[in-house]
Amino acid sequence: MISDNPIAGAAIFILIIVGANFLMYAIARGWAKNGGSVRWIDALKQGLTKPMESQRNKSMEELRQEMEKLQKSSEKKE
């Protein structure tokens, strides 16, 4: 698919690159100043790890219950 106006495509691409660089600059500046920008990064990190932790806790709880069942059944056999 060939565009009729390649200049518009190039301009959009350049704007995306400039926007990404500005975002990285803002994050790095926030880290350097140790200001409020770091808080939203920490909140984002905690939000992303919470589902994983709850899934881990759920699977560990299931494993713990199975181990208790096996221990009870082995005690009954003896």
Largest sheet: none
Oligomer: single chain
Which radius of gyration do the C-alpha atoms yield?
A: 26 Å
Shape: elongated
Flag low-confidence runs: none
Number of domains: 1
Secondary structure elements and their pairing?
Blueprint: H1 6-33, H2 36-77
Question: What does the model show?
Answer:
This protein has helices at residues 6-33, 36-77. The chain is mainly α and 78 residues long. The protein has one domain (6-77). The longest helix has 42 residues, at 36-77. The termini are far apart.
Descriptive labels:
78 residues; mainly alpha; 90% helix
Summed up, what is this model?
The chain has 78 residues and is mostly helical.
